[in-house]
Amino acid sequence: MRRTASHPDQLPLGFGKDAEIERMIEARVAIRAEAEAVRWRFRLMIVETLLLTTMVIVTGLVLHQPTAIIARGALLIGATCLSTGILLILLTGLIGKLLSRTRQWRARRSDAILPWRRP
Fold first, then answer.
1. How many other C-beta atoms are found inside a 10 Å radius of the C-beta of residue 53?
2. In sequence order, which ranges of 15-66 are alpha helices (DSSP H)?
3. pTM
4. Are the C-beta atoms of residues 6 and 12 closer than 8 Å to each other?
5. Which 8-state DSSP code applies to residue 65?
6. pLDDT along the chain (119 residues), means of 10
7. Do residues 49 and 81 touch, judged by C-beta distance below 8 A?
8. Which residue windows are transmembrane per the record (predicted)?
């Protein structure tokens, strides 16, 4: 493989030298991606809640139900959908943290046990 000579005024690029900077960038990107994922989950939950509440209102109006029954049903559906959505998001986060801690614990445990194994 032939290498082309760089221009003498060009700055040399060392791509393998800054591994620490690369790790810092990857950590920041991971934090930002996780925050965006949580925001999108909340947005999806809010849209689903509004959609179901609107469907209950429209259905009640089409069936000529009394306004009090429509309002109560829409409120119950909206509150239930919102609370279950928040609960699912919290449980997902909790289980994710639990699984990552379990993996870390198993990795430390296997590193501690490795020197004690016989060849």
1. 19
2. 19-62
3. 0.64
4. yes
5. -
6. 66 68 85 88 94 96 96 96 94 90 85 63
7. yes
8. 42-63, 69-99
